[in-house]
Write a sequence for this structure.
């Protein structure tokens, strides 16, 4: 669709991370509800989440994991979760 606002892929995220492949890509929300709020968009137009192929779902999950492992905000969140779990087991 030529008039689709999600088909025009932005160059990069603010953190300098580029997350894209043949099946899906990540872009920032112009009006984020919280820090790190992103859109993960499949390249193929689909009716809903369940209409995506396993490969497309895998690409989306991979982008999520890569962003969490790379972005400073997300890494800090993961570290906090790990620290909370350790406190509970001590
Ligand atoms: Zn589109």
């Amino acid at each position: 669709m030529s008039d689709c606002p999600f088909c025009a892929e932005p160059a990069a995220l603010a953190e300098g991370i580029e997350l894209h492949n043949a099946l899906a890509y990540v872009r920032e929300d112009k009006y984020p509800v919280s820090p790190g709020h992103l859109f993960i968009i499949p390249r193929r137009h689909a009716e809903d989440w369940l209409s995506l192929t396993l490969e497309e779902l895998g690409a989306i999950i991979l982008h999520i994991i890569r962003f969490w492992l790379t972005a400073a905000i997300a890494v800090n969140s993961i570290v906090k979760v790990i620290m909370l779990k350790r406190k509970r087991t001590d």
Residues 24-89 form one domain. The pocket of zinc ion is lined by residues 1, 4, 6-7, 45 (CB under 6 Å).
